[in-house]
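Researcher: Re-running this chain for the archive, since the previous output was lost when a drive failed. Same request as before.
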Amino acid sequence: MRIDLLRVLAIAAVVAGGLLVPTGARAAPPANDAFADATTINPSSLPFSETILIDEATSESWPVSNCGVANDGKDVWYAITPTSSGTLHVGVNASFYYQFVGIYRQDGSGLAGLTTLTCNGWFYGQSGATFTVNGGSTYYIEAGSTYAQSGSLTLTLQVVPPPVNDNFANATQIDSLPYTDSVDSTAAGIESGEPPLSCGYDQSGDTVWYSFTPSQTGSYTATAPYSGFYPQVAVYSGSTLGTLSEIGCRTLGQQLTFHANVGTTYYFQVGGLFGARGTLNFNLNVAPAPTAGFYYSPSDPSIFDPIQFNDQAYDPGGNGFSSEAWDFGDGGTALNPGCCPTHHYSSDGTYRVTLTVTTTDGRVASTSQDVLVKTHDVSIAKVTVPQSASVGQTRPITVGLVNARYPETVQVHLLKSSAAGWQEVGVLTQYVPVRGGNRTTNFGFNYTFAPEDSATGRINFQAIATIQGARDAIPADNSFTSLPTRVPH
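Model: Regenerated structure tokens:
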């Protein structure tokens, strides 16, 4: 006889205690489905791990959590009462996509007495949360899925040990430079009597310590660079926590450069800005040397120029300078003038100018430049023109230059006056030697008087002299306007 398999499966049942129980009945929810039935974790049994199926888990309506129950979540509960203060890490690894975990402290009775410490939701994968506990307080862990997702969930709980150099007495000793170290500050704490970092804004439980005894006197630079958050670092002198004296403090990745004496032990306190925790990186090395530099203006000075010197010194150690000392090479000096001292030289020559800078921690740098002072100066002593001339007549015009300093090549422009302004007549360039006794070097021009020159009955000539390849120290005497020449109608 043929058996209808589908019919058999549809009516199949088993007898249990006199009742017919369908084979497709729902399984019972997890034992720790409700807050009141939370699984108690013995602190002495850590690390703890449990895998649980949450297919039939439910969620409770309560006034605190917003982790998953607001989105038809399924959750299970765990409770722990640590016997001592410390840091715990809960990990969640689920087979479903949307998962969450909430951490609460029991500050009153029931669900309403829970204080939320953290409430995180993640996508698929293994995730976790770290939280600080106080001995004797009870903490609850709520884990599960959002959007009514089902599957298996593995929850782990373990103690996060503090870093070995969490306390001042266990400061990590630095024996050689350059030194670099990374440490997990997640479970770091603050000791009773530990000084606050003067450059920080919040110091809530995450400092570590280093010690260093230099083998030679000098300057050293400590840094705590950005590592997902900004650290802060301070350096102290003193031998006990209660006798520490802060030497310096930096944050936001800035360099901390300080002067240290041979044989003296110095302590470094490193922590996260605003109490941030995680991987702290710490570096210590000999401080970089400063660099000295300057420029001056004008670049071709004369004895008539006030020369301005501009300090370009730079301190890669980040401290800046306590003094800038200038030696101008002629016996003149300046100390701490700021960026821009001025100096006059009384005679031409080459002067060795030296700038010496000293950082606030005592590092020194020096640089020198030769400053050439050379005074170029010619002047127009006269412009000789005829007293009168007729239209169409060609007459000579002479420009006389005085030069008592250096041989020069000079260009002279000759201009005449007109109703439209000055108009160029001609240009001459020639060598001008040094002549004493106000003797001149003459530039000779010839000019043919035009009909428009007679419009006013007289014209003036103007000469302008320019030294070629050098700057004239006194340009005011480089132009000369002649007496008028009469040009009759």
